[in-house]
Amino acid sequence: MPFSDPEAKRRWQRDYNRRYYAANKVSRRLVSKATDQRRALRARKRQWVMDLVDDRCSGCGEVSMALELSCPTAPRRIADRSVVDYSWTDLKSLGPDLVATCGVCRHE
Ligand SMILES: [Zn+2]
Question: Would you place residue 95 in the very low, low, confident or very high pLDDT band (cuts 50, 70, 90)?
Fold first, then answer.
């Protein structure tokens, strides 16, 4: 492995990853594992936000399981993402600005 050259190392790693993925995609269920892990991560992030807002709508204060999460102050680089796809760092720094909206307030 030619690791003295960072660019060569990067290429080697990329090619290794491609070979590994091609060889193990089916047998190791890589796609469904990645999907499951992403779903679980989103669920953990949603729970973190729900704990932060105490499961309450930011508008009316009602407890709801169907709160829609948003962040009006999100920087442009992440503004088009779902809140549960923010990085932990972004979530923690934007925490006070996160808005949870219930179905009633959403339609007002
Ligand atoms: Zn509400």
Answer: very high
Q: Is the pTM of this model over 0.85?
A: no
Tell me how far the alpha carbon of residue 44 lies from the centroid of ligand 1, in angstroms: 23
The confidence score (pLDDT) of residue 37 equals 97
Q: 64 alpha carbon to ligand 1 midpoint, in Å?
A: 8
Q: Ligand 1 mean position to 95 CA, how many Å? A: 19
Long-range CB pairs of 97-100 (<8 Å, 24+ gap) are 97/71, 97/72, 97/73, 98/49, 98/52, 98/53, 98/69, 98/70, 98/71, 99/58, 99/69, 99/70, 99/71, 99/72, 100/49, 100/50, 100/53, 100/56, 100/57, 100/58, 100/67, 100/68, 100/69
